[in-house]
Here is the input.
Amino acid sequence: MSKRMYFIIGILIILVIAGFFLYATGFDPCAPQGSGESKTAVRAFIGDPNAVVIFKKSYKNVIGESYDIYRVNTDEFTVDPTTGSVVGASLLSVPRLQNKNLYIQQTESNAKDFAARHYNDFYSRTMMLTELKEWDYGFSGNDYSFTWTEQSMGSNTSNSVRVVVNTDGKVLYYFARDKTPPTVGPVMVGKDLAVEIATNEVIGTAKYRNEPEKFITTELTVMPDHRVVWVVGLQFLYVEKDKRLEANPSGIIYIDAMTGEVLESDRCCS
Here is the structure.
């Protein structure tokens, strides 16, 4: 066999090995690579400057905000590309536990310490514990969920941080929202009324079972024409309509904050 043939075979072997390595690590040279600043933020969040951070996808939430998702091994991190900060983490490498080694009150300090490390100025702002829940998934284990919400003039704002831990106090999930609300004058339609109007728009006279089966996002927004608008995103797990269960009706409803008029309704499955 000629030296040229040996050389070609050697190159092919190197390419096969390199291809296998790229496949195993999840690297796709044709895929978008994301932001270097965002990858640095993910490494800082997990405390590993050498972590291999891989861009996964971009998406928009129900109120049109853009976010990027990155992964490190099996864990996923959501980054706000406008600030370069990590606003969500799904630590899938941490297991749920069936055995209650610690109870919910015992894990609160772990969750709060994690929130304080990652949420901007947690202790210098008025962050109040507004929700704590235990989720029992049967054979899949248990979670403890803690939510702190920033207070302003005695009321909740849209800024909050939620930390979910297992029964060893190890963090499973982290969700944060930290947006400066627009400067607007007093509005005539409050948040509760806006949610009620949006609910009626999405499901009409249908009945939903209870509050945990309804997910809400609300944002007070100033439009380019200077109108102040509530943007309400709703998703119901189930509603009862005409004596039938209907799954996952949802929608994004735009409501004039001065008049209560529904300006736009983007409904799904309703």
Q: What stands out?
A: The chain has four helices and 15 strands. Residues 104-177 form one domain.
